[in-house]
Amino acid sequence: MPFDPSYHADSVRRVKSIARQMSPPAATSFTAELVPQAPEDALFGLARAYRADEDPNKVDLGIGAYRDDSAKPWVLPVVKKADEILRNDPELNHEYAPIAGIASFTSKAAELILGGPDSPAIKEKRVTSMQTISGTGAVHLGALFLAKFFPGTKKVYLSNPTWANHNQIFSNVSLPIAQYPYFSKETKGLDFEGMKAAIHGAPDRSIILLHACAHNPTGVDPTLEQWKEIAAAMRAKDHFPFFDCAYQGFASGDLMKDNAAVRYFVEQGFELVIAQSFAKNFGLYGERAGCFHVVTGPAPDAQATISRIASQLAILQRSEISNPPLYGARIASTVLNDPKLFAEWEENLRTMSGRIISMRTALRSKLEELGTPGSWNHITDQIGMFSFTGLTEAQVMKLREDAHVYMTKNGRISMAGLNTRNVEYFAKAVDKVVREAQGV
């Protein structure tokens, strides 16, 4: 058919006429009512404010990352050695990891948290492990699995307070959350009776999230005898334990001491899950190496049960990230599988935990020397990266305004941010705001 210019022009006019009659398209489908502006993450907002502060005396006690006595990030010497080994491996490639991760890493990670190859869960082959995007990814994978498959009361009980991200992770997979008492403002220690009462009062077969060691944010841990009572209370109500472990070896410098609660629950035959991070104890913060472990209870069909669980975890992992990242897991695997490097890693852990313990001692001593009102024994009674100082939000903001000290509003400080150069400065700043608040 020959081209007819008049027909073409008429078609164009009709299209333009229809277009004029149509209402203009909406500028966005995502209006402010549907997608409101979210608040900035409090912790990373704090870090941004610290970086923008030009005062030479500023002190960063916010984000929990280890710093040496010069306030510098510390690459563990053993990590440098593992990195050298990897870089000189002629067989090294960058192919996909299996969906479940690097087996040499996940198997040793399981041994680390469960107490070695003689753990009953490992000997009886009733544990499965998935490499994750650090501890956050492990908590998320566990939350996703329980949201889909847990047959009990689908409500997660979190300590009050807890790591702030716990709330968001479980809410994102539509698992309701509740709280159990944990920190006593009066004693600045564990509210043990309140915790036990809440465990007894929770509906049967609830999920109870427990910090394995170095509780974040308080630094307050149950004693082993208290863990035994907690286990008994949970057994009486048939609750399901979800352990989050971000600080094994970093808390006390002793890997076996820091996994004692997990080992006890496994020995008692609990079915449980564990989120495990290697950010703090290897200094691999940005490499995101972690594991999620499921331990099923002892039973004749335990191996079949764990096989089914592993198959479903693989499907969840595949739909989320497909394959976990390699570098951090390779570093950790190299160390965990070499006895000499493992021993050196333990020494590195003692260096980090020892420096933090020394800062706890120094801070308490300075405050007591100054006669700062109140008792400060909780600084040394607490353990791990963080200390719940007991300072109020008003005092925290006053410290930021007057002394350029950056810490979270609830009074939590990262002990790793203190060093021999700033601990006295911080103690004097705390002394000042406490006295002002009390009119002393």
From TrEMBL:
Residues 57-429 form the Aminotransferase class I/classII large domain. GO terms for molecular function: L-aspartate:2-oxoglutarate aminotransferase activity; pyridoxal phosphate binding. GO terms for cellular component: cytosol. It catalyses: L-aspartate + 2-oxoglutarate = oxaloacetate + L-glutamate. It is an enzyme of class 2 (transferase). It holds the Pfam family Aminotran_1_2. Keywords: Aminotransferase, Pyridoxal phosphate, Transferase. Its EC number is 2.6.1.1. The keyword Transferase applies. Its cofactor is pyridoxal 5'-phosphate. GO terms for biological process: aspartate biosynthetic process. PROSITE patterns: AA_TRANSFER_CLASS_1. Belongs to the class-I pyridoxal-phosphate-dependent aminotransferase family. In eukaryotes there are cytoplasmic, mitochondrial and chloroplastic isozymes. Homodimer. PANTHER family: ASPARTATE AMINOTRANSFERASE, GLUTAMATE OXALOACETATE TRANSAMINASE 1, ISOFORM B. This is Aspartate aminotransferase.
